[in-house]
Amino acid sequence: MRTLPRISPLGLLAVLALAGCRQDMHDQPRFKPLAKSDFYGDLRSARAPVEGTIARGQLHEDAYFYTGKVGNAPGDYMPFPANEDVLARGRERFDIYCSPCHSRLGDGNGVIVQRGFRRPPSYHTDRLRNAPLGYFFDVMTNGFGAMPDYASQISARDRWNIVAYIRALQLSQNATSTAVPAGQKMPSQAVVFRGDPGSGATLPEIQPNSDAGKEDQPK
To answer: Could you tell me which of 170, 167, 137, 129 has the C-alpha nearest to residue 154?
Structure first.
């Protein structure tokens, strides 16, 4: 007849202690969201914040920074300077969150649209070129039409970074030669390379664009 190993009182105590820890750590008392609770008089397990307190990260004293509005109307200024770092960050966030629908050019022909999703308006229409900056921030914050809100995915500052980049994108797609600073080459005057059949070398040359400067010529 096979006998079972004897467990010392100390070993039994250790087993019971570990079982108790597992009960406390793996099966803690808790409420499911919005579940009923008999502990409180109003029977709600979810409690309102303590009166007069504000949760960490929820102190939104600068209303314009978090809404893009002055009163009930969208404002038309950046809440911080739009420098090179802001535009670089805005471009990065735009390419991640916005370009799938709006495309990297902002013409509304992103990869999702090419696969059948509803096409958003181009940023390069007169309506959106003239729209105030706060309008774009508000749309990202609250959504518009088929576009959902992105407030939970993109921080308020990054939404403003994207706003700055959208305006720069609009300017880049509708600029004229008069907007190019003195001494800076036009895109139509960029250096291109051609092969020299005689030597096999690749030499730079200026390749003028036949359409360059048409907007500056008298009609």
So the answer is: 137
Nearest CA among 116, 110, 87 for reference residue 97: 110
Identify any residues that bridge with 195 across adjacent strands, giving them in sequence order: 202
SS3 21: helix
Q: Which pLDDT does position 7 carry in this prediction?
A: 66
Q: What pLDDT does residue 206 have?
A: 38
> What is the rounded CA–CA span in Å between residue 93 and residue 169?
14
Q: Is the dihedral of CA 192, 195, 200, 205 positive or negative?
A: negative
What is the DSSP code (8-state) at residue 149? P
In the predicted model, residues of the chain with pLDDT beneath 50 are 190-219
Q: What is the rounded distance in angstroms from the CA atom of residue 160 to the CA atom of residue 170?
A: 15
Query: Quick one: pLDDT at residue 176?
Result: 77
CA distance 69 to 175: 28
- Do 162 and 154 meet the contact criterion of CB atoms below 8 Å apart? yes
Q: So what's the pLDDT on residue 212? A: 40
Q: How far apart are CA 44 and CA 32, in angstroms?
A: 11
User: CB neighbours of 178 closer than 8 A, spacing ≥ 6?
Assistant: 216
